[in-house]
Amino acid sequence: MKTTGACLLVVLVVCLSGCGVTVVPRATATARVDLADNSISESRDGVTVKARLHDPDFAPVLSEGNLSAFELTVGNRTGKSLSLPLSAFLLMDDRGTQYSPLPPERVNEILRRNSPYLLPYPYVGYYYLEDMEKAAAARGFTSSRPYFAQNRPADALVGALDNLDLVPDAQVTGLVFFTIDLTRVRSVELRAYLSESAKDGIADFTLPFSVEKK
Description:
Mean pLDDT is 75; it is low at 1-18, 57-61, 117-128 and 134-152. It contains two helices and twelve strands. The strands form three sheets. Strands 1-12-11-7-8 form a five-stranded antiparallel beta sheet, with no helix packed on it. The longest helix has 11 residues, at 104-114. It has a single domain (17-213), classed as Immunoglobulin-like. The chain is mainly beta and 214 residues long.
């Protein structure tokens, strides 16, 4: 008899494509779209900010709202050091709702609290832990999608961005997380500010995305 198998370990995922929705970057007069990786970028005063939606299958269905991740690349060509706090970024939807980025420790807390779920067999997942491990070993790295760390949610945060400190001629890439259900909005803008005082005016960088129903 299988010993520790009488529990079900499953991570439910949010799949925007399954909801008939796709998130598309939209070019502006100053922001350029790269169709190769579905990203959008904008440059100003020697600083470049590039963004794209991270794989929508990344996050589990959460009891307190859906977790969406954007992959950001920030480049510094100012000739001097550049510091940007995580609060320099925000997300705004078409209804005027503002979303602040979550620090990595907060994301870790959310993932640990909501994953994994225990559901009765045979609805979804694996009845025995051994079966899950065998399936994972057989599957290997055949999937092109990022792997969500089912047993150790903190592993998913390796690339999470916090406060940024860039030396001249350097760039950094990582994930910024927001608690937003993208299937419930029509569009979002990822905004970035080079200084806290700039938030009183127009954002230094505005990267728009449309959320389209298929």
